[in-house]
Every structure is written in structure tokens, then in C-alpha cells.
Amino acid sequence: MTLDLDGPEPLYEQIAAVLAARIADGTYPPRRRIPSEAAICEEFSVARPTARSAVQLLRERGLVSTVQGKGTYVAQPSADDADDCP
Length: 86
Description:
CATH superfamily: Winged helix-like DNA-binding domain superfamily/Winged helix DNA-binding domain
Low-confidence stretches: none
Number of domains: 1
Number of strands: 2
Largest sheet: 2 strands, antiparallel
Strand content: 5-15%
CATH architecture: Orthogonal Bundle
Number of helices: 4
Radius of gyration: 13 Å
Helix content: 40-55%
């Protein structure tokens, strides 16, 4: 997905949406790391504060958690999410 530089949505929200979609489709499975801020900067050609804001948004939404010194990991699906599976 390309970022819409002229659109009304902030870049960090667009990046968070791409990462959230990758979490949802299993590209980044539960309990595994997502790309580092540096890797996000490189992939999306953005500055570190933009990448950091995108990861913070994912954290606020409960999709990821950060372990100091280790990285940011996809959150384990809750028991409520498992009820949605057939």
C-alpha cells in the first residue's frame, strides 16, 4: 500500500493501518515481533517520530505491546476474539 501524502489522514495513522492489516492477515503472527522503528522508517520513507507514533497508535489499540530492550510484539488474541471463529 502506498501512503497518500496529500490526503487528510496523518502519515502515522496510514502506517498504523497498514501494520494493523498485516497483523490481521497473519503477516505478523501473535507473539512475534513487528518491524523495528528503523525498519518502518526505511520501508515507508518517514522520520523516526512518525514511525514511533504509528507503533504507539497500535499499542493504544491493544494490537501490540513493547518489551523494553527486545522490541514490539503482536498481542495475543483475547478469548473474546476466539469466540468469533467458526
